[in-house]
Amino acid sequence: MKLRLALGLFAAGLMGLASFATPAKAQGTIRLGYSELLSGTFAMVGDQGIKTIQFVIDGINAKGGVLGKKLELVPLDHKGQPAEAIGNMQKLVDDGVQIMLNCGPSNVGSALVGAVEKHNERNPDRRILFINCGALAPELTNEQCSFWHFRASMHAGQQAEIMVRSMPKSVTSVYLLNQDYIFGQSAQRDLKKYLAALRPDVKILGEELIPLGKIKDFSPYIAKIKATGAQGLLTGNWGPDLSLLVKAGMDAGLPVDYYTMLSHLAGSPTAIGPAGENRVHSVISMHENVGVETKNAELDAWIQAFRKNHNFDFIFGDRRVAIEITAAAIAKAGSTDPLKVALALEGLTITDGAGHPATMRKDDHQIVLTYYGSVFTKDVKYDSEKTGLGWKTEATIKPGDLDQSHTCKMKRPAA
After folding, report:
1. Is-above-0.70 flag for pTM?
2. Which CATH number is correct for 157-284+370-401, 3.50.50.60, 3.30.559.70, 3.40.1180.10, 3.40.50.2300?
3. Most exposed: 108, 211, 265, 383, by fewest CB within 10 Å?
C-alpha cells in the first residue's frame, strides 16, 4: 500500500514548550504520545525534533486528519534517562494513549523496547505501540527486536555503510571517534566493518570512545588526531559532543574532512561555521535543498512553508516519515488498537517527501528509505542556521544500494 500524505500550506501556530508539561486529553482526537529529550545538554536537538513533528502533524490535520479525526501530540520529557522514559510510558498508558513515539537516544530506546514488551505481555488489554524515530543502535531491530517496536530511521550500521559509500576515493586514512554508549559503540564497530568490506584501501590510524555529554575541552583529542596525520575524522557524535569537537578542530587548524552522521542537528552548523565549508559531511535523511536539486516543486514548497514557521532547518526526513507512516497504518487498520496498527505497519510502503518509497520491513520492523551523503557548502539555495552554508547532496543512497541482513527472531503475539 502506498499513501502520500502531502502537507498543504497553513497558518497554524505551535504550542510553547511550557504547555508540554502534562498530557492534555482532547475529545475526538487521535493522541500520539511523544517522549523526547527536552531539557539538559541536548535540549536544543529535542526542541528541533518536537517542533518538526508538530509541523508534520499540523499538515496532516490541515488535510483532514486520519479516520476523520485530528492527530494530537502528547509530549513528555524523558531527560535522556531510561527510568524517566519508562515512567513516561506508564503515564501515557494510564492516560489511555495507545501509540508512543520516542526519538532517542539509544540507551533510552533500548530500555523502552524491553519495557513495552514486558508491559504488553502482562497487560494485553492495555497495550502500547512504540514508534522509534531516533534511537539508532542496530541491536534494537536485531537481538532486541520486538513486535511492538518499529524504527523509522536507518540504524547506525546502515548509516555507517552510507557514510563509507559516500566517502571519496581520495581519502585513504581516517581516525574514528564516537560516544561511549550503545549508539556510539555501534557506530564505531560498524564503521570499521564497512571500511574493511568496502574500502580496504583506507587505514584506520586511531580510534577512541568518549563519555557521552561529559567532555567540554576537545583540544587533547584534536592533538591526538592531528599527530596521526589522518585525512578524515569519522564520527557518530551528536549535539554538543559534535559541535565542540568540530569547533576545537577548526580552531586548531586540524587538516581533516569531517564525516559525520549527525552534524546537521541543531547548533552544529553554527558551531562549525565558515571554516567547515566543503570539509564537513553528513549522512542525512533529508535536507532542505533536495527539492531544488531534484526539481521537486512540491517538496520545495513544503520546505518554504517550514522555514516560514521556524528559525531552524528541516533535516528530519525520517521523523516526517515516522508520522506519515504511522498515520497511514492507522488509516489502513481503521483503528488505533496497537495490534491492528502494528499488523498494518508490517510491509507498509509510503512515499517520502522527495518521492522515494519508504518501507517498513516485516521481519525486523526496520524502515528502509533513501538517505543522502551531503556536504556543508555555499553553493545552495537554503543555508543552515543563517551561516551562509547549507547542505548539498554528494551521494544519494537508496535502500537497494545497501545489503544489510538482520538477526531478529521476533516473538509475535498469539492470534
Report:
1. yes
2. 3.40.50.2300
3. 211
